[in-house]
Amino acid sequence: MTVPIVRTRQLHLQIGNRVLCDQLNLSVTAGQRLAVLGQNGSGKTTLLHALLKLGPTDEDRIEIDGRPLSSWSRAELAKRVGILFQDSHDDMPATVQETVMLGRLPHLPAWRWESEQDLALAEQALKTVGLEQLARRDVGSLSGGERQRLAIASLLTQAPTLYLLDEPSNHLDISFQIKTLSLLSDTVKRDNGALIMATHDINLAARFCDQVLLLHGGGAYTLGAQADVLTDTILSDAYDCDIRHVNTDCGRFFYPGDKL
Amino acid sequence: MSVPDYCRTTGAALQEQQSAVSPLRQYMLLSALTVLLVISVLLALSSGSVSVPLSSVWQQLHNPTPGIEQQILWDLRLPRAMAALVTGGLLALSGVIMQVLLRNPLADPYILGVSGGAAVGALAVILLGVASIWITQAAFAGALLSVFVVFGLAGRQQWSATRLLLTGVVVSAGWGAVINVMLTTSNGNNVQSMLFWLMGDLSQSRTGSWHFVLLLAGLLLMLSQARALNALARGELVAAALGVNVPRLKLILYFTAAMLTATAVTVAGSVGFVGLVIPHMLRLLGARDHRWLLPCSVLLGSSFLLLADTLARTIVAPQQLPVGVLTAMIGVPAFLFILHRGARLP
Questions:
Q1: Residue of B nearest to A76 (CA)
Q2: Which end of chain B lies in a sparser environment, N or C, as judged by fewer CB atoms within 10 Å?
Q3: CB–CB of B258/B111 below 8 Å?
C-alpha cells in the first residue's frame, strides 16, 4: 500500500475557544487533489498552515510521507511542501527576479549560489506565468494579479511535492485561474505530487479536485469524493445559502439560487 | 531534487538578464566601494590642520621616521581614522539588520534605545565621579541593559515587528527623560564631556583589534544568513515556509545588531544617519540581495564616516565640528539625489 503524502489522524484545530475541525482524518495520496471549502473563518487557512508547521497544532497527529510532522525540520519540510499565501508583503524592495529565486532557498546550502539549473527553473516559472518581461521590475510596482502570478512562479521554482494553495484564484483573471490550476494539477498528476487548495470558488474545486473537505464550522466537516460532497443539499447547508447546479459540457456549474 | 519537465530548459536567458542587473553590476559596486574606502582612509590621513602629502603618508605607514609627521599620523590621525572606519561599518551593518528584522525602512541601529542606555550609563559614572576609565564599560553596560529591557518588554521571542518597534521607541523616550534629569542636575563642567555621548564625536575615540574582529565576525555571521534575510524581508510566514527557523533567526539578528550598535556607541557616541541611510542608498543602487548588501554596507558605512569626520576636522579648521553634523550634511543631499534618481528608474 502506498504511503499517503499527507495524513491527519484525529486532528483537532482551534483558535482561542473556536473549534475549527475536530477528529479530522484526512489522507491525500500521490496524484490526488483536495479542495478545502467552507465559509469565511471556518479554518481553511489554519488547516493549510498547520500542515506546514506555521501555526500551533498537535504535530504528532499530522504525517507527511508517513512521518509525523514533529520529526520534520523546517528546512527539510520546505523541500517537500510549498505554500501559496493569500497575501504578499513588499515592505522592502526586491525585483521580480530576486523574489522568484527565493523559491530555490530550501534546496541550497547557506553559502552556495544558485546554479544554472536553478536559474532555468526560475526562468521557466516566470515564462509560465507570463512575467518574464517584468523580471527587473520592483515587486512594489506590480498589480495585484501580477503579484499573485509572481507568488505562483516562486512556488513553481520551489518545486515541492505537496502544493498548498490558499485562495489561488485571488486577483487572477479567469484565463489565468484556469491556466494556473491546470498547470499545477497536471504537474501534481505527472510527478506523483499532491495538491491541497483552500478556496471559495466551488466551481474551481469541482473542476480541478478529486476530493473535497467541507468545513462546517464548530469542528464538523464533510470529507469525500468531490461528486459526493459537492451536492446542492450539502453545499446549501454548509454555506447557509441556496446553492444549485447545472450540468455543462465542462462539468457541473454551481450558482447561488434566489432563496436566502 | 525532482525538476518538473516543463522546467527542463537552459538558464541562459535568465543568466543573461541577471548579468544585466546583478552579478556584474554588484561586483563593480563592491569594487568601487573598496576603492572608495582606500581613498577615504588616505584622505583622512593626509587632511587636517597640518596637511601631510600622500607620498609622506605612504612612507610613514611603511617606514615610520620619527618627527612631527609620524606623531600626527600614528598618534592622532590613524587611531581616529580607524575609529571612524570601524564605527561606520558597525552602524551600517546594524542598520541593515534592524531594517530587515523590523521590515521597516525607518528602523535604525538606535531603535532599541541603545544610544540612550549607553548615554545614561556613561553619564551616571561621570556624575558619580567614578574614574573615567570606567565610562566606556558603563556605557556598554547601559546599552546592553536597554537591549534586554526592550527584549523583555516586547514579549521575548513572541514579539511582532510593530511591538518591538514601539517598545524601542518608548524605552528610548524613557532614557531621554533620564538624560535630561541628569543634565539639568549636573554642574557645568560635566556637561561638555556628557555631550560626547549625546552628539557623537570621534576626537577622543580609540579602537582595539577586537572592534575589527567583532565587525568581521558580525559580517560573516550575517553573510551566513544572507539568503534567509532575503526571505525574511518578504515576511516571517514566507521565510518560515521556505525553511527558515524564524524565531532563531530573529534572536540572532536582534542580539547581533544590539552588540554591533553598543560597540559603535562606546567608540564614538551616538552618530546618527549612517545606519539609517547607508542601507537605503545601496538598495537604491541595486544591492537588494543581502549577499551583496551586507558587505557593501560595511564598506560604504566606513567610507562615509571617514569622509564625514575628515570634513568635520577640516571644514572650519582649526576648530572641529561634531561628526554627526557632517553625516547629516553629506547624507541628506546624497540620499535625496539617489532617491530622486531611483524613482525614475524603470
A1: B243
A2: C
A3: no
pLDDT, tens only, B217-254: 999 999 999 999 999 999 999 999 999 999 999 999 99
Cβ B11–A53 below 8 Å, yes or no?
A: no
Kindly report the pTM of this predicted structure: 0.89
Domain chopping of chain A, boundaries: 6-199
Average pLDDT, chain A: 92
CB-based contact A121 B231, cutoff 8 Å: no
Question: Model confidence over B96-130: pLDDT tens digits?
Answer: 999 999 888 778 888 888 888 988 888 888 888 77
Domain count, chain B: 1
Whether B21 and A97 lie within 8 Å, measured CB to CB: yes
Q: Do A190 and B104 touch (CB under 8 A)?
A: no
ipTM, two decimals, is 0.93
pLDDT in tens, A18-34: 889 899 999 999 999 99
Look at residue B12 and tell me if it is in a domain: no
Which residues lie closer than 8 Å to A119 by C-beta, 6 or more apart?
Answer: A101, B11, B14, B15, B18
A66: cell is 508517513
Mean of the per-residue pLDDT values for chain B?
A: 84
* Facing residue for B14 by CB, picked from A103, A107, A119: A119
What is the DSSP code string of B58-71?
HHHHHS--SSHHHH
Q: Inter-chain contact B231–A79, Cβ cutoff 8 Å?
A: no
Task: Give the whole-angstrom CA distance, residue A140 versus residue A143.
Answer: 8
Closest alpha carbon within chain A to B287? A94
C-alpha–C-alpha distance, residues B122 and A196, integer Å: 58
Check if A191 contacts B (Cβ < 8 Å): yes
CATH number at residue B229: 1.10.3470.10
Q: Compare B19 and A173 and report the one with higher pLDDT.
A: A173
Q: Judge whether A141 is closer than 8 Å to chain B, CB to CB.
A: no
CB-nearest to A136 from B5, B21, B228 is B21
Partner residue opposite B233 with nearest CB, options A94, A126, A191: A94
Residue range(s) defining the domain that contains residue B206:
25-45+52-343
What's the sign of the alpha-carbon dihedral B119, B120, B123, B129?
negative
Phi/psi of residue B317, each to 5°? -55, 145
